[in-house]
Amino acid sequence: MSQVIARATYRNPWADAYRSLVTEQPGRDHRFELVRVASAVSWDSGERLTEDEIRERVEVLTR
Is 42 among the domain residues? Predict the structure, then answer.
């Protein structure tokens, strides 16, 4: 798998978690940039979170 595809595959659950959270709690919709940056930092640092960990991180980032 190419690095570009691997990176996109890792970052998609971050966007999915954000979209799900905003659907449930629309007042959090102004924080996507924090989630986008956090997903990039996570990938670049070599951190590989599970989907549950990603959902928890997104929840914290959007408070």
Answer: yes
